[in-house]
Amino acid sequence: MTLLYLDDFTPGRTFTTGTVTVTQDEIIAFAAQFDPQPFHLDPAAAKATFFQGLAASGWHTASLTMRLLIGSEMSPAGGLIGAGVDELTWLRPVRPGDTLRADSEILEVRPSRSRPTQGLVKARVMTLNQNEDPVQRFVTNLVVQARPVQPD
Amino acid sequence: MTLLYLDDFTPGRTFTTGTVTVTQDEIIAFAAQFDPQPFHLDPAAAKATFFQGLAASGWHTASLTMRLLIGSEMSPAGGLIGAGVDELTWLRPVRPGDTLRADSEILEVRPSRSRPTQGLVKARVMTLNQNEDPVQRFVTNLVVQARPVQPD
Questions:
Q1: Are A101 and A68 in contact, with CB atoms under 8 Å apart?
Q2: Best residue of A81, A92, A144 to probe chain B, by most B CBs closer than 10 Å
Q3: Minimum-distance CB partner of A90 among B57, B58, B83
Q4: In B, which residues are within 8 Å of A49 by CB distance?
Q5: How much is the pTM?
Q6: Where are the beta strands (DSSP E) in chain A?
Q7: Does residue A49 lie within any of the structural domains?
Q8: B79 at the A interface (CB within 8 A)?
Q9: Which of B20, B30, B35, B135 to mutate to test the interface with A (most CBs of A within 10 A)?
């Protein structure tokens, strides 16, 4: 895996990830810990809700997306450090057995004025299921190191 | 706990939550599953990183915030269903032993034109630590049911 510096990120560059399959047990375990609502916990009770069946917590989908990004080709030296995300949207429910991957595109690269050793990279990250249907979209703002200056 | 309908949400109304204390073991367990990077996994290795010590994954903080909101007074009938969040920002590291709570303020309420039985509630959710320092801020867009019409 090649570690990337700020100048490796150019607007329009794209990255993808491996995949992860989420099981019903994992959906329920995450929900029990962080988002204990019937539509994330109980397949039978979920039928009569907004989601019309068991669905993963949106925060579970976001966390799985992070797991997909770690170890992918989008690997800044210094780590994948988000200052925050804009426009995190859940587009469709994630169901038991769904297989997810994440496709990213670099939108903008801004060297820091005050700290020349780093900059901000804005990237759109789309999480897709096995049918190529988008389930989540966000725009992340990554703190990325500038390439160390080589001595003359 | 009183379940709330769309007309219970008015701009300016505030809510708070109970608290949760996050342990080092929990920070590491979450990171191992979803965000396996040295600054979230290994207190010694974390010292030389951007975070200068072990810090919770931002997605862990977001998930803990969800946990705080569930069961709080901000409880729409039909559940706490986010269509997405705007401007999710991590303001400070969350450290082992930190005790978090979340304060919310309703910003905007919009009945749905196409679906009169529901609407969107925009709320700012601020997560604070035991020193009252904000660690995370987001604006969430909740899908909230309108109060059922009573027969005449």
A1: yes
A2: A81
A3: B83
A4: 78-79
A5: 0.95
A6: 14-15, 20-21, 81-90, 99-111, 118-128, 134-145
A7: yes
A8: yes
A9: B35
Query: Structural domain tally of chain A?
Result: 1
Question: Are B22 and B136 spatial neighbours (Cβ–Cβ below 8 Å)?
Answer: no
Contact residues, A window 18-37, toward B, CB-based 8 Å cutoff:
30, 33-37
B-chain CB neighbours of A80 within 8 Å are: 37
What's the pLDDT band for A152 if we cut at 50, 70, 90?
low
Q: Please report whether residue B152 resides in a domain.
A: no
Domain assignment present for A120: yes
CB A49 within 8 A of CB A55: no
Instruction: Tell me, yes or no, whether A81 lies in a domain.
Output: yes
Asked if residue B1 has pLDDT above 80, the reply is no
The residue segments making up the domain with residue B138 are 6-145
* Residue-level pLDDT at A50: 87
Q: Is the ipTM of this complex over 0.90?
A: yes
The CATH number of whichever domain residue B134 belongs to comes to 3.10.129.10
A84 shares contact with chain B (CB less than 8 Å): yes
Q: What distance in Å separates the CA atoms of residue B102 and residue B87, rounded to the nearest whole number?
A: 16
pLDDT in tens, B26-55: 999 999 999 999 999 999 999 998 899 999
